[in-house]
Design a protein that fits this description.
alpha+beta, about 80 residues, about 20% helix, five-stranded antiparallel beta sheet
Length: about 80
């Protein structure tokens, strides 16, 4: 196996993210990032076809299809910890 020099902090953040995604109780997650707009889109179903968008505090939009969350939009994504 080839050894790759990776930053431990980056690896730790990926591991933390993976454990959080598993807790969402969704089968699949698609992530798209628009660098120009600094918006991260997480979709839990393709096609998403959201019927309603609920704006949460701190520039987060929850997209729903009746009672099911089908996606999350995170504005100003690069400025978050």
């Amino acid at each position: 196996m080839e050894t790759v020099n990776l930053d431990k902090e980056i690896i730790d953040s990926y591991l933390a993210l993976s454990s959080r995604l598993i807790k969402l109780h969704v089968r699949q997650v698609w992530a798209d990032y628009d660098r120009e707009a600094d918006v991260l889109y997480l979709s839990f179903r393709k096609p998403q076809r959201a019927k309603k968008t609920v704006e949460m505090a701190d520039n987060v939009l929850i997209r729903t299809d009746d009672d099911e969350v089908v996606g999350i939009t995170i504005l100003n994504a690069s400025s978050r910890d």
